[in-house]
Specification:
Layout lengths: L1 H6 L5 H8 L3 H15 L2 H22 L3 H20 L9 E6 L7 H12 L3 E7 L2 H9 L5 E5 L6 H18 L3 E4 L11 E3 L5 H8 L4
Parallel strand pairs: 1-2, 1-3, 3-4, 4-5
Helix pairs in contact: 2-3, 3-4, 3-5, 4-5, 4-6, 5-6, 7-8
């Protein structure tokens, strides 16, 4: 941890706590402090994205342990989940399903997406990487008011395009809004909306919210 902090250029309280392997509660405290200073969860989301990028660059540049980076991701994911769980939502209000394309490894991003959804007042179910057929069946049955499907920049275009096409067709059939989130090799498909920045998630939700 000391070597990664000193040599990898990972700076800032949140990044340093993650690299040092500190507790989920300490990391959550940093997230809450960032929220208090900035006045919005969107700023916290942007900070998390920046920290994850710094950790990834440090691991690639200096050959740090990949497992150490995964531990940092898991800690941040747990802290984000605790923050999200404490946000109020309207009972019986709109709900969004958060999923990743099949075999996606960068699932810490789903916790960021879920926090952004909860901050917008929506309920959010985070289910991890899911086969496209399962997502399609869920969408066709109108199991959620919106679906947000994540893919990282590391995913190959061929697989992602095929999966998105299956899910989008089912969402169109069930009239379920679909957002394609992240840096994945997305191409416009039907009515699906591409959301490159996590900070744009509240805007997407507002645009698809049904009148109460």
């Amino acid at each position: 941890a000391a070597r990664q902090r000193g040599e990898n250029g990972v700076h800032g309280p949140l990044a340093e706590r993650l690299v040092a392997g500190e507790s989920v509660l300490r990391v959550q405290a940093d997230l809450l402090a960032d929220r208090a200073r900035s006045g919005s969860w969107r700023a916290v989301v942007d900070e998390c994205v920046s920290v994850l990028g710094a950790l990834s660059r440090a691991q690639r540049t200096n050959g740090g342990f990949h497992l150490a980076t995964r531990i940092a991701h898991a800690t941040l994911s747990d802290a984000l989940a605790r923050c999200a769980d404490e946000l109020p939502v309207v009972p019986g209000g709109p709900a969004a399903l958060v999923a990743a394309v099949e075999h996606e490894d960068f699932t810490v991003a789903l916790s960021i997406v879920r926090l952004a959804i909860r901050a917008a007042g929506w309920r959010a179910w985070c289910v991890g990487a899911v086969p496209s057929a399962e997502l399609a069946a869920f969408a066709a049955a109108q199991g959620a008011d919106a679906i947000l499907l994540f893919a990282s920049i590391a995913r190959s275009r061929a697989g992602v395009v095929e999966e998105v096409s299956i899910v989008e067709a089912a969402c169109a059939q069930g009239a379920v809004p679909l957002a394609l989130v992240g840096g994945g090799p997305f191409v416009p498909v039907g009515t699906a909306r591409i959301v490159r920045s996590f900070g744009e998630i509240p805007d997407f939700l507002e645009s698809v919210a049904r009148p109460s």
